């Protein structure tokens, strides 16, 4: 008798047009493993690949045939310290990168592949896998790292070797910027498409800060809440008008970066003299509540819409155009979608 299918990894590609779903299902004497590629919005099943082993990371390069794979789960297909470059047209590996410790994350753009270890990050040419850079970081168990997607501007952001500081490297200008983002360790970071804006959250999880990567200056600050929270995801929309975050509090928050749309601010102006930072804070423009589950989210296009996916494979499509508390869309179980 088969056990329930288990999701090991969910992740969006660089422009959020697709996402990958890695799963494994254990039988008495065998394991069925592989990954699926799905269109983000409107939701549509693309294809599935089955393997004799599971994957902890499946990083798709846009909607191309190139996928970076790292073993994971109870029956890993590859070692945890190896990145396999899989060509889905040729249906075979075309390259590999091997390390002395476990790979925490892999990020790609059309000209680079970046491998994140617990204390170091390696940057390679994607075409020939020649190393271009290596970066020492503080302990980075979550594999925090992000890349710009703009073809003309190569920017990478990651934790620096100082707690609460973000390191930004702008390769086109041969420029390195260290940003003192938070007093406590970074929990989540995100770059907008051209890498000119960096969003950060600390392990305290109460504030989201946005910085100009060219100057290092803070340009905006948003309040998620007053209680400590683990931030799961930060993401800009394609034209940097909105930013969203999800956390273990079960709420996805959407904040406006545009001057034409105002975020919520608390009243009680007389309290500003007592708690000026708290009562001057910008709170989210819109919120969407999910039952207790780890979540990731993204903006699938320029419309006021977010897609939220839980760790157990429940998909939500949320229209936040009216702001405030957003009604739940009909949830879809990704594991129950018809496999073609």
Automatic annotation (TrEMBL):
It holds the Pfam family PROPPIN. Keywords: Repeat, WD repeat. This is Anaphase-promoting complex subunit 4 WD40 domain-containing protein. SMART domains: WD40 (SM00320). SUPFAM superfamilies: WD40 repeat-like. GO terms for cellular component: cytoplasm. Belongs to the WD repeat PROPPIN family. Transmembrane segments: none annotated. Signal peptide: none annotated. InterPro entries: PROPPIN, WD40/YVTN_repeat-like_dom_sf, WD40_repeat_dom_sf, WD40_rpt.
């Amino acid at each position: 008798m088969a056990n329930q299918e288990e999701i090991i990894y969910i992740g969006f590609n660089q422009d959020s047009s697709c996402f990958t779903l890695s799963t494994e299902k254990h039988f008495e004497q065998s394991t069925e493993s592989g990954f699926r590629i799905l269109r983000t919005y409107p939701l549509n099943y693309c294809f599935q690949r089955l393997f004799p082993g599971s994957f902890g990371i499946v990083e798709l390069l846009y909607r191309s045939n190139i996928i970076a794979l790292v073993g994971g789960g109870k029956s890993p297909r590859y070692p945890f310290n190896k990145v396999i470059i899989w060509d889905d047209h040729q249906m075979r590996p075309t390259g590999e990168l091997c390390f002395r410790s476990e790979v925490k994350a892999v990020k790609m753009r059309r000209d680079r592949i970046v491998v994140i270890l617990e204390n170091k990050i390696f940057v390679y040419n994607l075409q020939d896998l020649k190393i271009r850079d290596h970066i020492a970081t503080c302990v980075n168990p979550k594999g925090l790292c992000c890349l710009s997607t703009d073809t003309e501007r190569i920017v990478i952001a990651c934790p620096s070797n100082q707690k609460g500081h973000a390191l930004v490297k702008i390769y086109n200008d041969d420029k390195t910027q260290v940003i003192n983002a938070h007093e406590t360790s970074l929990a989540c970071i995100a770059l907008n498409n051209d890498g000119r804006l960096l969003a950060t959250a600390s392990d305290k999880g109460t504030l989201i800060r946005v910085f100009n990567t060219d100057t290092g200056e803070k340009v905006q600050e948003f309040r998620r809440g007053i209680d400590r929270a683990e931030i799961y995801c930060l993401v800009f929309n394609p034209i940097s008008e909105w930013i969203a975050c999800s956390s273990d509090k079960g709420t996805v928050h959407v904040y406006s970066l545009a001057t034409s749309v105002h975020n919520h601010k608390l009243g009680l102006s007389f309290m500003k003299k007592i708690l000026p930072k708290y009562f001057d804070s910008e709170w989210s423009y819109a919120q969407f509540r999910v039952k207790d589950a780890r979540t990731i989210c993204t903006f699938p296009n320029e419309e006021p819409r977010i897609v939220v996916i839980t760790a157990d494979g429940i998909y939500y499509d949320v229209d936040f155009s009216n702001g405030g508390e957003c009604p739940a869309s009909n949830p879809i179980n990704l594991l129950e979608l018809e496999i073609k």
